[in-house]
Please model this.
Amino acid sequence: MKFKALAIALCVGLSAGVAQADPVNLTLSGGNPGGLWSLLGAGMDKAAKASNKDSVITYQATGGGFANIALLGANKTDLGMVHDAEVNLALSGQPPFKAPVKNMMAIGYMYNWAPMHFFLKKELAEKYNIDSLDDIATSKAPLTIGINRSGNITSNVAVFMLAQAGLTEETLTANGGSFVRAGANEQGDLMKDNRIDMATNGIFIRHSSFRAIDENVDVILLTVPDNVIAATNKEFGTSTYTIPAKSYSKQTADVKTMALGAMVVTTDKLPDAAAYELGKSFAKNIDEIRNVHKAMRQLNTEILVSQTVLPFHPGAERAYKEAGILK
Model:
């Protein structure tokens, strides 16, 4: 009987030692209800549940990355989806932020392959001899250029890149052109209806909005000078990216540009234990996140830990180091 009691005690002790950690119950602020970020939220919830069935990551639709940083800065959400470029602006207190946001910490990168595209109607490119972003200002072409709506980071990036290439709004106006604020899908319709001459945006290669432009309008993809890419990466904390040749019907060569990335961010208020469980779940169950959409197939653990704009939360950092994916 003594041996039996000892065996039971040992089994109980061993079971306690391998018991699941406490579940996480966190809110993730994302973007549009039906967009990619909402799918990523569902994938993160699945990854957390794969480690502990009682874990919950609740997705909260918001106005996007800028709004999420404001929520994080005020400690009104646990996690937020943000672009790396938005974080860079927040850290230095640049508009739309009135002061630096200093309480953010990274959980992980979700993607870093949303390159900036600059599509120009082929007839205008040939008429004014434009094949690069820096040709526009000197060409004196009176272009109507679509840029995303205010509050969308791709709008900030497009305006900055054009300015670095010599095309400020003042120069464009002097040439007889103008900027038109419109979302990704709207720009395709505007080009098709001859209401804009050029479309700019930073989304995945062959995104539906880009396919619509390529299939319905005779356009070329402009090249981007190296100095513009370098200045943009320095300003926004983004990275250089190459759009492979033949991604679009008139694209015969690779086009080097820069790409936006999206990351999951938290604050220094998140307990280490919760950040540790998140990091461990994401690293171990990354397929749950990767499988939410075909655009996410490139995601792997190397990319997950590759962001450089923020320090990792100590809990997540410990989990990644234990998994051997972070030095």
Notes: Residues 114-260 form a domain with the D-Maltodextrin-Binding Protein; domain 2 fold (CATH 3.40.190.10).
